[in-house]
Amino acid sequence: MTTISEVSTSSAAPSLSPEVARRLKRRYAAERRFQVYGLSAIMIGLAFLVIMFTSIIQAGLPAFQETRIRLDVELEADKFPTDPAELTADGLRLVGWTGMIQKSIRDTLKPEARSDAVLMHKLLSPNAEVAVRDAVVDDPSLIGSTLSIWVLAAGDVDAIMKGTIDRNLPEEQRTVNDKQLTYIDRLDADGRLRKQFAFTLFTAGASSYPESSGIGVAMIGSLFMMLIVLMLALPIGVAAAVYLEEFAPRNRWTDIIEVNINNLAAVPSIVFGLLGLAVFINFVELPRSAPLVGGLVLTLMTLPTVIIATRAALKAVPPSIREAALGIGASKMQSIFHHVLPLAAPGILTSIIIGLAQALGETAPLLMIGMVATVFTYPATPMDPATALPVQIYMWSGLPERGFVARTSAGIMVLLGFLIFMNALAVFLRKKFERRW
Amino acid sequence: MSVSVLLAVVLGLAVAFYFLGTRRAFGLSGGDTRTLHSRPNYYGLLTALWVAIPAIAAIIAWRLLQPGFMDSILVDSLPASVLNQEDSQLRLIVSTVKSLATGGISSGVEPYMMDAAQVYSDARATASVWLAIAALAAGLIGGGVVLLKMTSDTRARNRVEQIVKLVLIGCASIAILTTAGIVLSMLFETIHFFKSVSFSNFFLNTVWDPRFSSAGRDGGDTGQYGMIPLMVGTMYVAFVAMLVAVPIGLLAAMYLAEYATPKFRATAKPMLEILAGIPTVVYGFFALMTVGPFLRDTGDILGMDIDARSVMTAGIVMGIMIIPFISSLSDDVITQVPRSLREGSLGLGATKSETIRKVIFPAALPGIVGSILLAASRAIGETMIVVMAAGVAANLSGNPFEPMTTVTVKIVNQLTGDNEFTSPQTLVAFALGMTLFVITLGLNIFALHIVRKYREQYD
């Protein structure tokens, strides 16, 4: 039995009993271990982030460049209709484009055998015919002359040029054979081959060939949807938040609304897609695949987020502002619309941007309402069929061709770019206009 | 006149009446606006509202009544021989005629359909003209009455504010309407589904085999809709995800809350939260392209047979996604534990980690459990990752390296095909959606309940 004075003297002294020292050492070791666990948990999380970004960027960067081949296409006048009214994309569909292009590549590379001509033609993207046709539709005076045009190279040629297909592999493991390789080298030596920035990626719609498919239609579709979400979720969300925060009496009804909003925020997004399918498409009979329906579904989905964040922004405005307005004779409505809302505007803006970012990345509900369509042309109105950026990514990810992996990754990079921009904007606005009361 | 043009005209009219109303209020005041009850612009607003509201009400009423009314005109215009056919056949004819009338091209068009389409599109044209006249008349009458009855004593501001408040209440109720819409639409379709498929075939069956949509129609059996393998798959994937996310998330939260310097915390916390902001389709692609092949190659080295699409692939990637849900929510809860508890424990000689494990963790436990449950509900309802990485075969196995499928995958599969909407093959998606909605809602409510009930009240 030790007395208090003995304990105090012994702890003051550096010499601990061996058992205590051992236990202390163990406890300190546990302490250090725990810290390491915590730090490594964070590092694991961040490592996943880095791995994901690098693997996507690595796979996606090549898709921002495309390979083009210069062709000299003889547009013989006798192959074209004489009636100028027929010089449209539709009217010219039956002109023998394939023959013209085959002739052009034959004249350039001079095949030794018939089978070589086929190999040569395969160096070009099937999109080349469309490109030549469009050039003629744009400028009918070209008919009768020789058109020099840079057309897309086939996906495999593109991959060789970028090095994603290794040209040193044995011939049977390559999709491009040795003969085609020599053709590519000859084209390159003639200056008929060049790599350039892939505008096709940003302008084209769906296509079965990776080199001629792009996110153009998907971006327009997403843009329409974002506009609809902005036009609906902003006023409705702000109005709902103003009512709940400023006017609502504390009763059962407002309690129900509040619990409801919190629960809606946690409902799986796919359920909103089912709602959209059952209500907007089957009941109201709006068209499938239309950005209008997508926008409505995404609005319902983002409303809870917007309402919750807007309420927080309204709450941050001090009551003294309201009281001062009321004190000089403003009505309650005037105090809120003239004073509280303008002061809460930066916070509201931030919340709607974050809501939009959430809506932009959402895929599952859009699958339910038929946005998984192969759309080739730009939608002119929100009622036309379109697809969305994340849905386009999803559709590409399921395609087996090698070129689509790069396309998918590039699409993801564009999507993430938009999201990073939106979130950065939100942070910037908050930092710039944030007011401490 | 299309509805959007009509709406634009109505809005233009309302703006015009705003200026008329304001002018009239100035006129009534005789130049001294202090004699008015409200400021002049409120008189203008009141007039404008009374133009817009009746006109828009007329448009909405017509949109609600139109489908039934137009259909009856269409059916009347069909020859009697057609009307004798079966209901489903008739509905098909009606929709063919409609698509003809709106310029769509359908196969199997017969002469009487062309006639009916003509009648239908004529009726539509007439109706839209009458709608325009009715809506504009309603607006003009509303605005005109307000203008005529306006006096300097009209309580314009109060009446405008009443209307604005009603609009605010309406907007707040949209949340309720959404929930009601979700529940009703899914209930409706689910009841439809259970008319052709028995409860036991759905809830107690272990075989998922819905066949094609033609299966039921030929008098054969309608297929098997056992949700058990889907449910097991969902739970299994979510369980693997939680195995990844809970330890990482919790340890990260504890480090961030207790050890990290403010500067480190200010960088690391938002960085982790980026994980929650990345679209799920990106995670799906990451699973498909990187994690799946990595697991498969690792399996090859170890001599194990691992599928690229498997419970493990989907679970791990989903786990990464929900790390920030757990870490951020738990971090908030842990920082809310009062200082006095920490200082008391440290003062007794406990090390920091002992304080965290034995004092702070128990004190924050209800909040932590709540955050874990919320993350679990997120994992169960997650769609894109499992659609892309978990597989589509509904097999019931305990091996995490085999593909399994989930409820959400099957909802997507059943609805993206070309099935007829009324077939049980499609309707089963709504039954699955209903099940999913009930489970996630239950989890959320349970989580909130736990947080509220077991929260330690300090101070």
From TrEMBL, chain B:
One GO cellular component, as annotated: plasma membrane
Subcellular locations according to the entry: Cell inner membrane; Cell membrane
Coiled-coil intervals, chain numbering: none
Membrane topology recorded in Swiss-Prot or TrEMBL: Multi-pass membrane protein
Keyword entries, A-Z: Cell inner membrane, Cell membrane, Membrane, Phosphate transport, Transmembrane, Transmembrane helix, Transport
GO molecular function: phosphate transmembrane transporter activity
Pfam families: BPD_transp_1, DUF3708
InterPro entries for this protein: MetI-like, MetI-like_sf, Phosphate_PstC, PstC_N
Entry superkingdom: Bacteria
SUPFAM superfamilies listed in its UniProt record: MetI-like
Gene Ontology biological process terms from the UniProt entry: phosphate ion transport
Bilayer-crossing regions: 6-21, 42-65, 129-151, 163-188, 235-259, 271-291, 311-329, 359-380, 427-451
Leader sequence segment: none
Entry annotated with the keyword Cell membrane: yes
Record-annotated ABC transmembrane type-1 domain positions: 231-447
Record-linked PROSITE patterns: ABC_TM1
Function: Part of the binding-protein-dependent transport system for phosphate; probably responsible for the translocation of the substrate across the membrane.
Protein family: Belongs to the binding-protein-dependent transport system permease family. CysTW subfamily.
Name listed for the protein in its UniProt record: Phosphate transport system permease protein
